[in-house]
Amino acid sequence: MKIFRKWRCPKNRGGISIFFFRFIAAFLVFLALAPFSHAESGERNAVYLETVLAEAREKRLHEARYWQVLVHYREGAFGVKSIVDDPHFFLAEKGRTDPEAELEATIRAFFEPAEDEKEAAVCRFVARFAWIRERLDLDVSRLPVSACKGFDAFMEENEPKSATLAFPTSHINSPASMFGHTMLIIETKDKTNLLAHSVSYAAETDESFGPLFAVKGLFGLYRGYFSILPYYAKLQQYNDVDHRDIWEYRLNLSEDEIRRMMLHIWEWESVGCRYYFFTRNCSYLLFLLLEAARPEVDLTGTRPLWVIPLDSIRTIQEAGFMDKDSVSYRPSRTTKIMHLISRTPEAGKDIALALAGGESEKELESLLAGGDLSRKEKRLAYELAAEYVQYRYTKRAIGRDVYRERYLHVLGMRSRLGDSGDGDLYRIETPVPPHRGHRSARLAVGGGRSGGDPFFEFRLRPAYHHLMDNATGYVDYSQIVFADTALRLDPDAGTLRMEAFDLIDIVSISPRNRFFKPLSWKFSTGLVRVEDGDGEGRSLVYRFNPGSGVAYESDVFGAWYAMLETQGDVGSTLDKNYSAGIGASTGVVRPFRENWKMQVYAKNIYYGLGEEYNAFEAGVALNIAQDANSALALGIMRKRERGAYRSEAAVFVNLFF
Amino acid sequence: MKKIFAVVTVFCLLIISASGAFATQYNTGCGLGSMVMENQEGLLFQVLAVTTNGTSANQTFGITFGTLNCEQPASFASLEQSEIFIANNMDNIANDIARGQGEYLDTLAVLMEIPENERDVVYARLQDNFSVIYSSAEVSSTEVLSGIQAHM
Fold first, then answer.
1. From the list B61, B92, B130, which residue is nearest A228 (CB)?
2. Nearest CA to A208 among B34, B45, B58?
3. Contact between residue B60 and residue A4 where contact means Cβ atoms under 8 Å apart
4. What would the mean pLDDT of A351-368 be, rounded to a whole number?
5. Smallest Cβ distance to B38: which of A205, A242, A566?
6. Between chain A's N and C termini, which has fewer beta carbons within 10 Å?
7. Across chain B, which distance is largest between two alpha carbons, in Å?
8. Which residues of A fall within a CB distance of 8 Å from B88?
């Protein structure tokens, strides 16, 4: 990790020289005094250190909540252990498991001279220092480094005033972002939001491709680090390039609390933790910072088995970090383009597409002449074109030279039409914020008839959102399901068996229009039951099923999709133990009446490898959301596989928690 | 026949699961269009990447008052905040100037200490001179800054 720390940014060159002057003066004084003070005061300081240590022991400081928070100790099955696994974060050899030893080593370290202020314990562990200093009333004049000037200068320069939790939602069509991300935004005095600092935790991955990528992310083989960047840099990344809307939740941290948090953030420089996608992720690590700000709140202790960014917002909210109505919305470029499209007449869209596509002046002139657009409509068309050229560039549809030329050309045309006088052009209506959507874990209880026999079924899904669930707060027509487990009870036979295990089941239906041409796609893998050849029962097979295609949206039908799919099954019930084939699927998904949603689908796979047969399935599903966290799901389907027909009808109650 | 089917199946699988190559994240160099670029991995990669909220190793810790995506030009003598802001937001500032409004323009006004009651007038003047300020596709952030200063 390349680290360059430039906390202090002098406003002018005078600032630099004053800073340097002070620094050099202090250094000279230090040089002059060092040889004398060392021998003389060394002994006295050693005595003082012992006094301080004795006081710390007497006060049992290592048992204080704030110490537990700062070093992130947690009571586990094998005793106390810090969440942080980087040895760099500890000063005592057994610091990770021994709070008392770590405290003592920290205090001792404050008495160690350091060549560079940055390397001094006082600076590396500036939050620990501030707290211990206060609790033990340390005489800092007796420490070799009495304060962390770098930190103080940073605070003076920036004056952090407030903090916001930012949640870039999922990418419109990229599963890599489907859980979203959370980061902290630290707003500073007198600065606009763009100049605020973003504090973000992410796994550091140098490799950009590899079959181990997923495994590494899941099982802690990457290290995660905090990074601090100007907020505009993050906006560029998430809003402009990744096309993710950002939700901002204003936190009600006081200035003291923000100061405590900044002190602790400072301690995380180049400290890395093993990154676990489900547990030790961007959202969980933010809990650690918030606890440092407000130590009386326990966020890490209440966590479930996994931490999903969207859920973490609710956790933070429920812990009292947010006041009511503290949420604001930053639409992504895609959202802006969609908004502009909805306001631009067809002739304006023609012009926007022509401009973005680099049509010749002549063609453009005829479009402009024929369009008969008002000045306002032309502005809209040019602004749409400008956004769309940028979109095409970030999607690598056009190269940089072409982009520059077209972008400036379009903006030049726009600038000649004067101020829009239409301030609400970008005032995009705020959708329902994500924390008001359903929770991400789901329990489904229900039953029905399958092949004429009754059954009861229990389904438990740890995460995250099903295509048929109410999409409020989620991406429309998307699905990301992890480890959905279904157990089916046959009351006649008295058997309880696993019906299915959807390890991963992702669907992304992205409607295409004149401006956006995304691919729709799906990917699922897990255990499913297929008919036994003799038509008697059904057996589990392991299935792998990717597919991709296109989708369109209309007011009448909702989203319509068609995909080419491949499917491979492995199981002992199959001849040669496997079958693989290709096929297609199609369907419509239509939300209606606010909280209803219907899907009609059909799918055919021809297995030409391994055991050969044709499988066909068609069905209708209906979902009626009662409120955010409960819904009624109904479905009927009929399928034919391995020569056997089966019809199934089921009703479920879905509860989100 | 069977072989052909096998080939077709495998081929479809490949098309579906791994379309596209991957590329670097940053389009480096200063000026317009130096921004973070979208990763262009295939679907399989993206599915695998579900499990890693990853970042490339060039993230920094520290309040960066340097340029993000490009080497600092030699003329970057003083780390003027407004110049750095322009260098890092060339494209969005161009957009705001052309439209005569926007958050990036507002931020620039704060950095350049333009009083609030004068901003509308300044924005209109900048808009009028857009093509002078962003004079060519190769325009540098330093040139943009002096262009803005000249027409403030």
1. B61
2. B45
3. yes
4. 80
5. A242
6. C
7. 78
8. 230, 232-233, 236
B55 with A202: Cβ contact below 8 A: yes
**Rounded Cα–Cα distance for residues A331 and A426 (Å):** 9
Is the pLDDT at A13 greater than 60? The verdict is no
Write down how long chain B is. Answer: 152
Q: What are A103's two structure tokens?
A: 């405290």
Asked whether the beta carbons of B151 and B125 are under 8 A apart, the reply is yes
Q: CA-CA distance, A264 to A89, in Å (whole number)?
A: 12
Residue A390 confidence (pLDDT): 93
- pLDDT interval class at B60 (50, 70, 90): low
* Residue B62 distance to chain A (closest CA, Å): 5
The pairing of beta strand A197-204 with beta strand A322-330: unpaired
How far is B107 from A118, CA to CA, in rounded Å?
Answer: 32
- Which of B63, B84, B127 is the mutation pick for testing A, counting most A CBs within 10 A? B63
Q: Which helix (H) or strand (E) holds B128?
A: helix B119-128
Ramachandran area for residue B12 (φ above 0: left; ψ -120 to 50: alpha; else beta)? alpha
Which residues from B are below 8 Å from A386, CB to CB? 95, 98
Rounded Cα distance, A538 and A543, in Å: 14
Chain A residue with minimum CA distance to B30: A400
Tell me the sheet residues that pair with A81: A74
Structure tokens that stand for A483 in this block? 């480890």
CA atoms within 13 A on the CB side of A489: 9
- Residue ranges covered by each domain of chain A: 13-156, 159-330, 342-426, 438-656
- Which tokens sit at A645? 């027909």
**What tokens does B64 get?**
């960066």
Residue from the list A178, A225, A383 with its beta carbon closest to the beta carbon of B50: A178
- Closest chain B residue to A1, measured at CA: B57
A42 residue type, one letter = G
CA of A233 to nearest chain B CA: how many angstroms apart? 8
Q: Do A420 and B52 touch (CB under 8 A)?
A: no
Residue with tokens 């639409």: A331
Whether A580 contacts A609, CB under 8 Å: yes
Give the model confidence (pLDDT) of A446-474 as tens digits.
999 998 899 999 999 988 899 999 998 88
For the beta carbon of residue A240, count every other beta carbon within 10 angstroms: 23
pLDDT, tens only, A647-656:
999 999 999 9
- Cβ-defined contacts of A45-52 (< 8 Å, 24+): A45/A111, A45/A142, A46/A111, A48/A139, A48/A142, A49/A107, A49/A108, A49/A111, A52/A107, A52/A136, A52/A138
**d(CA B152, nearest CA chain A) in Å:** 16
Using a CB-CB distance cutoff of 8 angstroms, which residues of chain A are in contact with residue B31? 404
**8 Å CB contact of B9 and A609:** yes
pLDDT, one tens digit per residue, over A315-346 is: 999 999 999 878 999 999 989 999 999 999 99
Q: Assign 3-class secondary structure to A572-627.
A: CCCHHHEEEEEEEEEEEEEEECCCEEEEEEEEEEEEEEECCEEEEEEEEEEEEEEE
Range from A21-30, A486-495, B110-119 carrying the lowest mean pLDDT: A21-30
The confidence band for B25, taking pLDDT boundaries of 50, 70 and 90, is very low
CATH number of A438-656: 2.40.160.40
Distance (Å) from the alpha carbon of B71 to chain A's nearest alpha carbon: 14
Answer yes or no: is pLDDT of A179 > 90: no
Distance in angstroms between the alpha carbons of the first and the last residue of chain B: 74
